[in-house]
Q: What sequence folds into this?
């Protein structure tokens, strides 16, 4: 049982809105469908990034009765 963590999926601004990010994320999503947890870390203030991940059905940790920690 493994956990996959992605910290921000970045696409160069010149190449955004061409579905590149969706293609990359979908490939990772499918490749690692077997892992126990697929986790993404991004800034809370990045509303566009948060909407992007939510379109894939991802939820904030708090919705899963979890909390994350960092130093």
A:
């Amino acid at each position: 049982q493994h956990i996959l963590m992605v910290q921000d999926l970045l696409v160069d601004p010149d190449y955004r809105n061409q579905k590149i990010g969706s293609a990359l994320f979908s490939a990772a999503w499918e490749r690692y469908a077997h892992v126990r947890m697929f986790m993404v870390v991004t800034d809370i203030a990045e509303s566009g990034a948060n909407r992007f991940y939510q379109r894939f059905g991802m939820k904030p940790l708090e919705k899963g009765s979890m909390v994350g920690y960092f130093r």
Notes: The chain has a mean pLDDT of 93.
